[in-house]
Amino acid sequence: MTVTNSERLRISVMQAAPDAETLRAEVRRYLSITGMSIPQFADELGRGQSTIGIWLTKSYRVKNDDLLRRKIWDFLQRHQIDSAAELHRSQSGHLYETQNWRIIRTYMMAACERGEVCLLYGPPGTQKTFALSRLVADRNRERRNDAIYVYASQGMRSIALLKRIAQGLGVFSQVRAVEALSAAIVRELLRRQKAPAIIVDEAQHLGVEPLEILRELHDRTGCGLVLAGSHRLFENFLRGRQHLEQWLSRIDHKDPLPGLLAGEIREIASREMGNGHPAELSSEQLKAIFDACAVDDVFSRGEDGRTAPRKYFSVRRLVKFLDQVKARTEGVQA
What we know:
The structure is a single chain. This protein is of the alpha/beta class. Helices cover 57% and strands 10% of the residues. It is built from 16 helices and 7 strands. Helix 7 crosses helix 8, helix 10 packs parallel to helix 11 and helix 15 packs across helix 16.
C-alpha cells in the first residue's frame, strides 16, 4: 500500500521504533496473546496482509521499513499487551489455587522450560481451558520463553492445526501443503533461542495424523508439548497404540485431573461467602455446596485403563453455585 505524503508526515513525528528483530518479536508476542491473526493485524494498521507477512518473515526488504516500524510500534504502544491480558482475564472467570491448577502449572513449566511432553486429561469443569490460556497469556506477557496456545476443534485436520500454530508463532504463509507449512514452522522454532512450547487444548479431537505432526515438531525442534483434553484423549492413545507407538514412548508425564478436593471446596466457599474473610458454614450449607458441585464421571478410568465411574467435584459448578448465592444475598440486602 502506498504511503501518502500526509501519512508519511504524521508517522515521521512518532517516536522511533525498536530495531526490526526486536519489533518482530513484540508483534509475534502480541498476536499470540490476543489471538489476532496477521490479516486482522494488517487491517488494524491499514497495511496489506502480504506486506506485514513479508516483513514478519524477513522474506525480503519492505519499502518504507522505517515508516512501517514506526506505525507498528505506535499501534503496540496504544494497545498495550498488558491491557490485552487483563481483558483476557476479565472475560475468563474465576481462578482458584487448587490441586488441578498446580498440576496444570507444573506440566506447563515442564513443557516450556525443559521441552517435555505432557498429557493432561479429565472431566469437564476442571478448569483446563481457563488455566492453560491464563498461563500462556501470563508467560508471554512476562516475556519468558513463549508458549503457543491452540484450541483443537472437532475433527481438526492437520493443515488447520498447523495454521493455528503458525498464527501463534507469527509465521506468515499462504501455502496449503502440510509439508511446506510444517517446514516453515520448524524453521521458526529453530530460529528462536529456545523453542516455544505448544499447548493443545481439547486434544481428544486430534486424529493420528495431526498427533504425528506434533510429535515430529517436538523431535525436530525440541519444543515442549502439552496435550489437554477429556478422558477420551487418554482412551485415544490406548486405542491407537499400534499407530502411536512413537508418541507413547515420548510422553514424560500423564495424569488425570482429580477435580476439586473436599478441603478446597470448604476453603473456597468459606472465603467467597464471607466476602474475603473466612465464614463459618453450617453442615446444611456445606451439604448444599457439595451436592451442587458433585458430578458423576461415568468415563473415568482406573490405572489399568478400564472404566471406573466415580464422583468428582466441578470447579465450574462451584463457581456457578457461589455466584447464585451472592446474587440472592445482594438481592435481599437491596
